[in-house]
Amino acid sequence: MASSFAINSITPNSNYLRHLRNYSFPAFVLRKTINFPVKSSNLSCKRRSCRVGIVRASSSTEVVDDRESADVERAHNGKVLRVGLICGGPSAERGISLNSARSVLDHIQGDDLDVSCYYIDSKLKAYAISTAQVYSNTPADFDFKLESLAQGFNSLSDFTEHLASSVDIVFPVIHGRFGEDGGVQELLERSNIPFVGTGSTQCQKAFDKYDASLELDRQGFVTVPNFLIQGSEMDESGLSKWFDQNLLDTKLGKVVVKPTRAGSSIGVSVAYGVTDSLQKANTIISEGIDDKVLVEIFLEGGSEFTAIVLDVGSGFDCQPVVLLPTEVELQSHGTVDVREKDAIFNYRRKYLPTRQVAYHTPPRFSVDVISKIREGASLLFQRLGLRDFARIDGWFLLPSMEASSFAGNKFGRTDSGTVIFTDINLISGMEQTSFLFQQASKVGFSHSNILRIIIQHACLRFPALLSHSIISSPSRRRSKSASVTESFIKQHKKVYVIFGGDTSERQVSLMSGTNVWLNLRASDDLEVTPCLLAPATSYSDVSDFAKREVDKKSKTVWTLPYSLLLRHTTEEVLDACVEAIEPNRAALTSHLRNQVMDDLTRGLRKLSWFNGFDISDELPKKFSLEQWVKLAKESLATVFIAVHGGIGEDGTLQSLLEAEGVPYTGPGVMASKTCMDKVATSLALKHLTDFGVLTINKDVRKKDDLLKMSISDLWRDLKSKLNCDTLCVKPARDGCSTGVARLCCEGDLAFYINALQDCLPRIPPNSLSKEHGMIEMPNPPPELVIFEPFVETDEIVVASKSRNEIAHNLLWKGDSRWVEVTVGVVGKRGSMRSLTPSVTVKESGGILSLEEKFQGGTGINLTPPPPSIMSNPALERCKKHIELIANTLQLEGFSRIDAFVHADTGEVLIIEVNTVPGMTPSTVLIHQALAEQPPMYPQQFFRTLLDLASERSM
């Protein structure tokens, strides 16, 4: 029988860990130590260290402190700094933590800095993991195989002992519990291990929303009135009095209910009245999210903001500088479901790029309000004893919105309204387009530069690390103000990465394009320009869409500066482009940017290792699509296509580029046209049945015809023609992730057709008879939809996600013997090679949601398929069938094939082929490239795809 030990046996004097003594750890026999060294040659092309002087914050961006190259050489030749990156944790945000760790790893690795990766699982067990595991989509991808593929530690004491001898400094990127509440910090402090960020005592005080609000009140800040509910004590009488005191109706008064210690977005909901508030508080407690819950006044009509604070002081001398804050605007487009009318900035809106939220950096507030936000966040950072960096959230209320509850002469009041600080995030999210990088790029810092500055600043507190001097901006990429000669630029190969477009997958396209751009720009011999294929301004009159279809050549493309790309939606990027060239807005942004850069320069210029700002304040440029193609030709550029669906995947863009002789990534015109049409794809593969490649019967219907038919007659007709009881419906010529639903009855069919007719932007979870997640709908609605039999596969359960968890394991009955896989193919036309397939695990409803396909931290992909599901011979036969499909369709460069595979025979039942597959940071293509021997890391993988494009046969 497995033994366990209580957590207080590890550190008996630890206040924090005593608080978690209800956690126990399975016994684990410590295997022989496995080292996972991270070699920079594996992760990236070696970066040439290139100096950028400190830039004065002025429109001329004059170089005022150009250090000698000898100083850079001294730093470059110094000791390598060993960084331990810790991610995961017990909170529901551990998937986002993995995303942050992946992003940090991408941007800090270099010759002067070596990274080791560690993971804390949901039971607080520590593992040393390989860098390949950090590129997983979600912790569930590898939780079940940690015991065999990672170095586990018997206890947290053993873990810290390992860290003390293996790394110089720890960079914790655990969001929520154990990461931001002082847990991991206390663990490190007790072993005298240097780490990035705020100390344990200060973390504990700032992380708890109730304690933080009390502290803010003591410090003289305006706070939001709240009521605390603890444990099982549901104080209905006390809550009713609180409602009365704050002039809220006890039956319908609108409030926000949220856990006090679960991060900034987990478990947050809107409630009405005392009874509803208590019910939602009880849900938070019963689900184990937290045993302390806050009920707060709903700030109706307020504007939410968030601000990154960077400490630029020397040693223990705190000198916080607040970057340009971001305004968070919640939006609704089209018909709004009743469940969305009380929108809050929740987990989904924060991490999935849809049009439900927009960001404005700087905020659309008056200058005095922005100044008050920066001043207040700086004061909070100092008074709460925070270190290195943090993110502070809050609200701005206009005078007309203020309630009597906010009376009093406290910090936050301006002539324009009131600033209220609500949440303090000790470890801000660090995904590629996170607030940290958005705001940093606005004031001259690349991803790599801001992260290295944070790490180097943390080193100042530890005497033993003062001899280390990492290069703050190691990439050769620099602002135009630096002395980059014309000949230096000309010798580099130009690459245009294009993304965006009009399809329902344009937001995923933005994620793909951003990821490709960031990875390719690390190559010293490339000049990489991000390009937005601008979305249409409106689809309000979708019934007349066909008449409004414009000539493809007249579409608009914007070439983008660094800071304008880091957005969550294509519409946001487009708005940012328009704002950037609007004189008044541009002048205000420039003025605020210069203020922040002046503040930063005053602190950072005292630090010998700071090598200056490396992002210049450039303007976007607008071209017609035809002009842009000619520009690519004149520049001798290779185009990396990341436009999903529409003209990026149907052969149109490929045809325009071919006409001008411009090389591009992915398949050619005819292959793109065939694969974009799911019916044409099936017909092209129909003759391969005897070779183990099967196709699914399809029934194509016009949307207008669906609206005219009786639902009962249509349901009977479809079931009869397709010979099945359960249907799958999807757009005929759209991407792979939107508008796909499982229909089990007439009611489901009626609901789906109504969603098309009403142009719903999304179908809310569990609106159909079978449990499902959010279904993002195409916009505009498709003219043609496909009905096909729903293929039943046996459910795969990751045991670590189940309530009755016994061990990390996979549960699969395997009755039908069919599993769903997605497979990347790479190579030249006629000789395409299959990468290792990934088994896709659906969370609910039998259809992969948009999140599960593309959003890091969600969805599960098993790469390679576990032997318990598919034998090696079957896997090899599957790969041969995939290669046959790819070469029959004349694919080239790279594509992704989705299919069902028989676990015993390796037979393939084709679903669809994506000629411009998702290339987001968590895409399965990355997992599959890493499964190659030797592994291909993201920068190498995308460079390989680019080189294939340059060599393509026209």
From TrEMBL:
<dbReference type="GO" id="GO:0009507">
    <property type="term" value="C:chloroplast"/>
</dbReference>
<dbReference type="Pfam" id="PF01820">
    <property type="entry name" value="Dala_Dala_lig_N"/>
</dbReference>
<protein>
    <recommendedName>
        <fullName>ATP-grasp domain-containing protein</fullName>
    </recommendedName>
</protein>
<dbReference type="GO" id="GO:0008716">
    <property type="term" value="F:D-alanine-D-alanine ligase activity"/>
</dbReference>
<feature type="domain" description="ATP-grasp">
    <location>
        <begin position="214"/>
        <end position="456"/>
    </location>
</feature>
<dbReference type="InterPro" id="IPR000291">
    <property type="entry name" value="D-Ala_lig_Van_CS"/>
</dbReference>
<keyword id="KW-0133">Cell shape</keyword>
<keyword id="KW-0436">Ligase</keyword>
<dbReference type="GO" id="GO:0046872">
    <property type="term" value="F:metal ion binding"/>
</dbReference>
<keyword id="KW-0573">Peptidoglycan synthesis</keyword>
<dbReference type="GO" id="GO:0071555">
    <property type="term" value="P:cell wall organization"/>
</dbReference>
<keyword id="KW-0547">Nucleotide-binding</keyword>
<dbReference type="Pfam" id="PF07478">
    <property type="entry name" value="Dala_Dala_lig_C"/>
</dbReference>
<dbReference type="InterPro" id="IPR011127">
    <property type="entry name" value="Dala_Dala_lig_N"/>
</dbReference>
<dbReference type="GO" id="GO:0005524">
    <property type="term" value="F:ATP binding"/>
</dbReference>
<dbReference type="InterPro" id="IPR011761">
    <property type="entry name" value="ATP-grasp"/>
</dbReference>
<dbReference type="InterPro" id="IPR011095">
    <property type="entry name" value="Dala_Dala_lig_C"/>
</dbReference>
<keyword id="KW-0067">ATP-binding</keyword>
<dbReference type="InterPro" id="IPR013815">
    <property type="entry name" value="ATP_grasp_subdomain_1"/>
</dbReference>
<keyword id="KW-0961">Cell wall biogenesis/degradation</keyword>
<feature type="domain" description="ATP-grasp">
    <location>
        <begin position="885"/>
        <end position="950"/>
    </location>
</feature>
<comment type="similarity">
    <text>Belongs to the D-alanine--D-alanine ligase family.</text>
</comment>
<dbReference type="InterPro" id="IPR016185">
    <property type="entry name" value="PreATP-grasp_dom_sf"/>
</dbReference>
<dbReference type="GO" id="GO:0008360">
    <property type="term" value="P:regulation of cell shape"/>
</dbReference>
